[in-house]
Amino acid sequence: MYIYRYRSVAGPLWFLEKDGAICGLYLRPNTCFNGAQPACTPLIQQAVEQVADYLAGRRYNFSVPILLEGTHFQKKVWQTVAAIPYGRRYTYAQVAQMIGSRSPRAVGAANGQNPVSLIVPCHRLVGTAGDLRGYAGGLPMKQALLDMEQAVLHGGSWGGFDAVCRQRWDQLTAVEQEWLQK
């Protein structure tokens, strides 16, 4: 497994490749990084370029191969979330209904374990009333991503990632800071 840390306009991102596919795109360091070999492989470079284009508002979807490792239920949730169109928001209840589950909370729990953030756009899931729920990069980051997508689609303006990026850097724990040095 290979790992590469990328300093994006939205803050640090960690890309992981395994078996010829992107198996991780994390907004925060994760224990799955242990044992990964630091490298920017051609596939990781392609994923970095696609994510950079997405964050710049020039890309609506991704074409890099991904490897989703999880339970059968988690994979169903992630595959459904991956199909949510750019700029759209679905509720946890809608996704639950789409996959034949009666538990929006279980969908939320699975969504929270999404190993490939941004590529599988878990930020597009919201509460029943449209309210923001948890997000690995923090709720300001989730809001910034949603705002960016709306601005790109509708030609509006938005504040950019500067404030959320500074906040993400400031909130990193000592362990996460250590990972930044790797």
From TrEMBL:
Gene3D superfamilies: Methylated DNA-protein cysteine methyltransferase domain, Winged helix-like DNA-binding domain superfamily/Winged helix DNA-binding domain. Coiled coil: none annotated. Its EC number is 2.1.1.63. It catalyses: a 6-O-methyl-2'-deoxyguanosine in DNA + L-cysteinyl-[protein] = S-methyl-L-cysteinyl-[protein] + a 2'-deoxyguanosine in DNA; a 4-O-methyl-thymidine in DNA + L-cysteinyl-[protein] = a thymidine in DNA + S-methyl-L-cysteinyl-[protein]. Residues 5-66 form the Methylguanine DNA methyltransferase ribonuclease-like domain. GO terms for biological process: DNA repair; methylation. It is an enzyme of class 2 (transferase). It comes from the Bacteria. InterPro entries: MethylDNA_cys_MeTrfase_AS, MethylDNA_cys_MeTrfase_DNA-bd, MethylDNA_cys_MeTrfase_DNAb, MethylG_MeTrfase_N, MGMT_N_sf, WH-like_DNA-bd_sf. Residues 73-150 form the Methylated-DNA-[protein]-cysteine S-methyltransferase DNA binding domain. Signal peptide: none annotated. GO terms for molecular function: methylated-DNA-[protein]-cysteine S-methyltransferase activity. The keyword Kinase does not apply. NCBIfam families: ogt. Belongs to the MGMT family. This is methylated-DNA--[protein]-cysteine S-methyltransferase. It comes from Neobittarella massiliensis.
